[in-house]
Amino acid sequence: MNGGQARDAGQPLLLGVRHHGPGSARAVRAALDASRPRVVLIEGPPEADPLIPLAAAEDMRPPVALLAHAVDEPGRSAFWPLAAFSPEWVALRWALEHGVPARFIDLPATHTLAWERDEEENEEDKEGGEGEAAAERYALDEDVRIDPLGVLADTAGYDDAERWWEDVVEHRGVGKGDALAPFTALEEAMTALRETYGSGGHGRDLIREAHMRLRIREAQREFEDGVAVVCGAWHVPALRRRAGVTADRALLKGLPRVKTDVTWVPWTHRRLSRAGGYGAGIDSPGWYAHLFAAPDRPVERWLTKVAGLLRAEDRAVSPGHVIEAVRLAETLAALRGRPLPGLGEATDAVRAVMCDGSDVPLALVHDRLVVGDVLGKVPDTVPAVPLQRDLERTQRRLRLGPEVAERELDLDLRRETDAERSRLLHRLRLLGIDWGRPAASRSGTGTFRETWRLRWEPELAVRTAEAGVWGTTVPAAATAKAEADAVAARALADVTGLAERCLLAALPDALPVVMRVLADRAALDTDVAHLAQALPALVRSLRYGDVRGTDTAALAEVAAGLAERVFVGLPPACAGLDADAAEEMRRHVDAVHSALGLLGDVPAARDGRLRARWRAVLRTLSARDAVPGMLRGRAVRLLLDEGELAQDEAARLMRLVLSPGTPPADAAAWIDGFVGGSGGGLLLVHDERLFGLVDRWLTAVPAEAFTDVLPLLRRTFSAYEPGVRRTLGELVRQGPGSQGRAQALTAGAPGFGPGVDEARADAVLPVLRLLLGPDGDGEVRADRVDRVEVRR
After folding, report:
1. Which of 66, 381, 355, 111 minimizes the C-alpha distance to 256?
2. CA distance 187 to 182
3. What share of the chain is helix, strand, coil (3-state, %, to 5)?
4. What does the pLDDT look like over 542-594, one tens digit per residue?
5. Cα separations (Å) of 288 from 94, 162, 175, 371, 376?
6. Is the whole model's pTM more than 0.70, yes or no?
7. Which of 126, 213, 269, 623 could form a disulfide with 285 if both were Cys (CB 3.0 to 4.6 A apart)?
8. Contact 99, 38 (CB under 8 A)
9. Residue 741 burial by Cβ neighbours in a 10 Å radius (0-12, 13-18, 19+)
């Protein structure tokens, strides 16, 4: 059927398009200008009809999307994205600009959102005639699914559907003398496909098309022959077909329903790309936006834009490069038989001329321009859940607007604005809205510094709607969610982690519930590993009291009680462990040891009782034969670091372990526990006796046992920093002895000498006072600094 027949009395004007196709968008605008319909029907959810006038708002900027979500299950949602170059958006704006009614005619979202749940239920239980019949309707022709554009491209001899579409649509204009010519040609192609493949494996399309036909008939009764329909080209043959009203209504009978809300939300070019996961997406939204917006000479303008980007990244790109790249792109298009250069030719030209054949800068061009980081905007009058409104107000107040490009945000928690930003981000994380993710700070490791990586994704609008069930404001919703998570938590470590997050998010109203659950779980949990895993999170939380002004007294008492229970249960829990269990327990021992060093504001910690109890536990572990060698070695090392064990005593214990009567594998495990981890290598470098013991033991290991010992020792020594390994190698090469040691230190580690420079050591003390804080008499606290050794 040609374009003139489509305008006959009683026939709707069917404009078949490709979603997000700039060529289709230009053709739709030209067709509407030529035909001047009285109503425009658009493929989309009818529940969004009241939102159509908002598309004309000054502060509405595409890309945007219609978001429909189930009221009772906000996480069950669906999107209908629209870019500036989407034909549906162009049709919507044309109707608003010309005062013509616009309506959406696709299957209502109330059915679309219920499909998935209905299918899940039918998979579990297919009893009941109506439910089974509905499942059969949804599964029509689902065996073989086809990509219409892919089939047409393959028929035309193309191996890339995108390139075929560019050649036959984007580079051919909108029809010379007949604005409807592109739609006529595309309808003929789709009619042939539907005759061959039926629904093409898209069984749900039959139900959608039945609903669209009914809506078209309603519009025809109201507006007669002034009806224009903008829909996917695949649907045009089905909408053109004269199907009975009774048959269409029978297909729609008994469809499942779910109560829905619909609104506009910002979208991004990145989410329009197939890499973003949207099924009807495109590979190059940035390129398509350029094609739609460029008034003329699109390739020249594109390559100029690429040159500007590369120059901004300090690459030497001149106007001469642009001229040569344009020539190369046109030559490649001619060689490949294309009417105009496309994205492929432009990309090849950029790689050869501007990037010196490298794909590294080309990846930047693809990310920034071919895909792009364009973020849409919707008016404040758009319907939204109260939580969304509160979040937007808070973002404006804190000057922390959402951005599609990932960026780092450094916060100084001593500043009130930064502290509020931190609290907002932590509260959103509690609600499952991961707008920001914590990152390692490059400004320091103090507790008053935080670094976040921020990136706003459109799906976060769904998360916000879903979190709206917990409250109408961010603090109230985060508090309610934290309380519910505490009650539902199964593991003790989950509750301690939640307590830490509540302190970070400054949720004092949630802490009583969390603390009650924490105390109950800690009293009932007898697994020492669980207790040891939970203690560090609690102790970390205590540090936030000074920085964030949070009262942590109750948390401190729980932490002290948890530590006491760890002390009691740890020795028997460490007996008879295999190698893997011993490794895991060593991590717990290290974590508890570090945590106790931070537990300084609890009365039991201030008077030294907790530290004394912990040292007694370590002595028990170091002397008990039933404890694996890895744990015994670690206990000796921690006592040595604490100054509770003399080096002579450590050397004696090491000689006992490395004696010929001990199996080499057990001795290697003890060595791994003793010198493994942070600082172990420096201990061997600076203590010649310990180094000599390990060296002599290793050279005496029998050949038949050496292969069993080697993997464990390699793991131990491979964890050292390169400078430490190099120095140890020099010591091995020089051999034990003070003279060899001094030479190794001098040759292998510049800046180190054989003796202590007292003057340089004294120069460090003022800095330590600033870092650690003075005690009552203005001196650095002795329990914080055991000794200072600064070597040349």
Report:
1. 111
2. 9
3. 60, 10, 30
4. 665 544 555 566 667 677 777 777 888 888 888 888 888 888 888 888 888 88
5. 20, 11, 19, 9, 16
6. no
7. 269
8. no
9. buried
